[in-house]
Specification:
single chain; PLP-binding_barrel; eight-stranded parallel beta sheet; about 45% helix; pyridoxal phosphate; TIM Barrel; Pyridoxal phosphate homeostasis protein; binds pyridoxal-5'-phosphate; Ala_racemase_N; PyrdxlP_homeostasis; alpha/beta
């Protein structure tokens, strides 16, 4: 194996062990939790190596980096998750390779994604990004809709051609009453996820937890973890 492959294998093994331990502690089955590796700022060659090591879900947060990477890896059976703030002028590109957009946070984006998915003849899985630090009607600093906007977006996505409502996503807030309280913020997210499922039973994905807080997310009940640094290493600045 190349040095890089050996390193990624060791990192993946450590992350896998953390997830398994967290699942056991929470009385959850390991297969209730899906690992998504966030490959942003790292090259397509790393994506390929991760695939060889068994990774099947990858995430990116910038279209300009993600589009060429997805094209370079088009021969692999990977699910691509888009997790960054998304401008409507990038939607057409993103819809051409993303299987999931986890950062849906406003009605305009739903309209644009729907048109792009239909045009590309694809179905895009949508997660509504929730920001606990956003005020009603606003978005959070890192994107996301305030909790009282979830249901409106859910209805719009469900009615939009080309889109599928899959669940909720959150990045633990850095500001506001939940700052530094990952566990509490993930538990709050799970409450919103339960309400969403009551109205939309198929929307059962809960994407929460990153390198630093994946245990708290597993304990709360997350179904998908988005892990970058712990697998690929610390990103260069501006990543
Ligand atoms: C970068 C990123 C991650 C991964 O963060 P790490 O701390 O590197 O694991 C997860 N989610 C989103 C939305 C990200 O942008």
């Amino acid at each position: 194996m190349t040095d890089r492959k050996t390193q990624l294998a060791a990192n993946l093994e450590q992350v896998e062990e953390r997830i398994a331990t967290a699942c056991a502690a929470a009385g959850r089955k390991r297969d209730e939790v899906t690992l998504i590796v966030v490959t942003k700022t790292y090259p397509a060659s790393d994506v390929r190596t991760l695939y060889e090591l068994g990774v099947r879900h990858v995430a990116e947060n910038k279209d300009q980096d993600a589009a060429p990477k997805a094209a370079a890896c088009a021969d692999l059976s990977l699910s691509w998750h888009f997790v960054g703030q998304l401008q409507t002028n990038k939607v057409r590109s993103v819809a051409s390779y993303a299987d999931f957009v986890q950062s849906v946070d406003r009605p305009k984006l739903v309209t644009a994604l729907s048109a792009a998915a239909v045009r590309a003849d694809r179905e895009t899985g949508c997660l509504i990004q929730v920001a606990l630090d956003a005020e009603s009607g606003d978005r959070g600093a890192r994107g996301g809709v305030a909790p009282d906007g979830i249901e409106e977006l859910a209805g719009l996505i469900e009615d939009a051609p080309g889109l599928r409502l899959d669940g909720l996503m959150m990045v633990a807030p850095l500001h506001g009453p939940y700052a530094g309280r990952q566990q509490a913020s993930f538990e709050r997210l799970m409450e919103f996820a339960s309400s969403l499922r009551a109205a939309h039973p198929a929307a059962n994905m809960v994407s929460a937890g990153m390198s630093g807080d994946l245990e708290a997310a597993v304990a709360a009940g997350a179904t998908h973890l988005r892990v970058g640094t712990a697998v690929l290493g610390v990103r260069p600045r501006l990543g």
